[in-house]
Amino acid sequence: MIEVIKLCILLEQFELYCKNIFMIAYIDPGLGGLVVQSLIAGCLTVVWFFRNSFAKLFGFVKRLFGGKPKE
């Protein structure tokens, strides 16, 4: 009898755990749009950063070895 009660308690706890997981997994449209916008902005920022960094690096190397600087 005690084992049956323990099993019922465990099942209730598991059911509550599953409900909580689904509540966390829910993303409403407003949050979904914000996440998508943030991912796009982050990707574009990384591309812009590396593009400018490499341009400055190549310009420095070009000036270092006697190339004409851009005007």
3D architecture notes:
This protein has 71 residues and is mainly α. The chain has one domain. It contains two helices and no strands.
Notable traits:
71 residues
Termini gap: 88 Å
Overall morphology: rod-shaped
Largest beta-sheet details: none
Supply the number of structural domains: 1
> How many distinct beta strands?
0
Helix content: over 70%
What are the segments in which pLDDT stays under 50 over at least 5 consecutive residues? none
Secondary-structure content class: mainly alpha
Radius of gyration equals 28 Å
What is the succession of H and E elements? HH
Give a concise summary.
The chain has 71 residues and is mostly helical. The protein has one domain. The chain has helices spanning 2-25, 29-64.
Topology:
Layout: H1 2-25, H2 29-64
